[in-house]
Please model this.
Amino acid sequence: MKIISTVAELRAQPRPKGKRRVLVPTMGALHAGHLALIRLARKNAGAQGEVALSIFVNPLQFEPGADFSRYPRPALADEELCRKEGVDLIFRPAPGEMYFENRSTFVEETALSEPLCGASRPGHFRGVCTVVTKLFHLLTPDAAVFGEKDFQQLAIMRRMVRDLDFPVEIVAGPTVREPDGLALSSRNQYLSAEERAQAPIIRQALLEAAQSDETSARKMAAAVREKIESASLARIDYVEIVGTDDLRSRLTIEPDSLLAVAIFFGQTRLIDNILLR
Ligand code: PAF
Model:
C-alpha cells in the first residue's frame, strides 16, 4: 500500500494505464461504514483494479465554530484498517498541500445545496464540491464511492459530475448501522454515554414513519418530531420530507420521497434518512 502526502509525489507516479481506479474520499477516522465503501470500491475496481482512499479533514467544509480542530485524526489506526482491507493507495495531504493561502476559486452547486444541511451549514457543500473536484483532478479516478447516509452530498456529487462533465462514475454505498440502528459516523464517538443511549431514537422515528400509512408530509414530519423530542437530550435541527430528485419539500408522500433529519445530541449533529414508499 502506497501512502502519498504531497501533490508532487502523486504527480510523479502516473497511473498505470488500463487499470480501473476507484476512489473512496474520506476525512479519516475510518469505521465499519467506510470499510463497506472500500469493499464496494474493490468490487467496482475489480481484482486487477486500484482502490485509492483519500484522507483529508477539509477545512473548507466546516463552518465557523464547527468541529474542525477536534475532528478525530487517528492516522495509524486508519492506515492499519486500509492495509487490512487491501487499499492500494492512500492520499493524505496536509491542508497546506491542498489550498493556497490566497485561494480564490471554488466549486459551487447552487440548487441541491440549498435545503437541508445546506440551510444549517452555509458554505459546507461549496467546501465539499471544491475539495472533491480537486481530488478528482489529482487522482483521476474512474469511479468514486459516497455513502447514502449523506444523501444530499451524494445527490450533489451526481449533479456536479453531470454538470461539469467529470468522467467519474458515482457509486452509492448503503448506510451501515450499529445493531441498535444508529447510523455509523465518525462523530458518534463525541456522544456521551447518555447521548449514545438515546441516539437510536432517530432510526426508530424514521422506521415508524416509513411503515405508517400517513400521506401528509406535514403530519408525518410532526409525528417524527414528537417521537424524537421524547428523547430528553435530542434537539432537532431539521425534519424534512423532500423529493429525491430536487431535494425540495413535498406536501404529500409520493414515490421517491425521502425523509431526512439532522438532530443534535449536545454539540454533536447526527444526520440520517429513509426512503418512503
Ligand atoms: O463525506 C465526507 O467524508 C466528506 O464530505 C468528503 C466527501 C470526504 C469531502 O471532504
Remarks:
- The chain has a mean pLDDT of 97.
- Residues 2-173 form a domain with the Rossmann fold fold (CATH 3.40.50.620).
